[in-house]
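User: I need a structural model of Monosaccharide ABC transporter substrate-binding protein, CUT2 family from Paraburkholderia sartisoli for a docking pre-check later this week. Nothing fancy, just the predicted structure tokens so I can convert them on my end. Input:
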Amino acid sequence: MSKQDQHTGVSRRDFIKLGAGAAFAVAGGGMSGLSFGAGQTTLACSFRSLTNPYYTAFNKGAQSFAKSVGLPYVPLTTEGSSEKGIADIRALLQKTGGNLVLNVDPNDSADARVIVETCSKAGAYVTTIWNKPKDFHPWDFNPNYVAHLSFDGVAYGEATATELFKAMGGKGGVVALGGIFSNVPAIERKAGLMAALKKFPDIQLLDFQVADWDSQKAFPIMQAWLTRFNAKVKGVWAANDDMALGAIEALRAEGLAGQLPVSGMDGTTPGLAAVKVGELVTTVDWDPYWLGGIGLSMGLQAKEKKVDVAALPRDRRESFCKATLVTKSNVQAVISRESAPGADWNNLYARVAGPVVYR
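Assistant: Understood. Predicted structure tokens for Monosaccharide ABC transporter substrate-binding protein, CUT2 family:
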């Protein structure tokens, strides 16, 4: 066994294995293999990729909910393409005759408008996660646009940066990895980083680069930073775990993994493992398993008229949800919970923290 293989849940090899297995699962369980019975509602989630552990958990939550209600489920992946994401949803709407409940994390913020308008016209019910334009709201498309769920990216971007800066001793140079340039979560998390920098005047931002949420893109960026800045780099902030872990692999190649503090977000299984072994200072657990299933539950309850969404207060239609800042002090508790995930799919608003705040 190599030294790299000893780092549970952190190596790039683990990502590759996970991605291959997830891709196989989708190929074996996609639209072509499903029969759409007359009058039977189809459930679907659309999201970026199953090569990312965050979306693997998201998909598992959706599968769990679908099994609990005995309905067919279709996972759709955009693979970073807005065109593919929208085209796949349109194809499924046509195949189901609009008898569809969709939980979607749009590839780009602007995609949400097209997706919702198309679903509403077809009579389908849709919940959006994370991404949508600020001036676009569920109550503009009653009852088909059921809800929008997100988290306060500014607050948690600042919280993870604060933990990182403390681990750096409050001084030194930091490099930062951002998500897709036009994604709402990426924009908000960067704003949180910048807010934290104002509170730590002895921390210098050496460079900020976008790595599209992807460990494979973060790895060479981190390599280049180590060459360019060398010993000036005292910490690494990343807008998600996948990019953080790509940076850690670049640090590992230089014998620096666990020596330079790194922060992430998403609370993925590999990210939590990295926190446990001391290679990641902090992450944020959004509970993607819950998100994957609860968005479908909201949509199905609206479709079956168990919930009159038009009568709900607006903070139940556009909601910030509760998350957990994870450090070494509480990581084992989070790992234990995620090793046996569960959710009350009927308790739709237990995790609602308040209305979405637009800054």
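Before docking, keep this in mind: The two ends are 50 Å apart (CA to CA).
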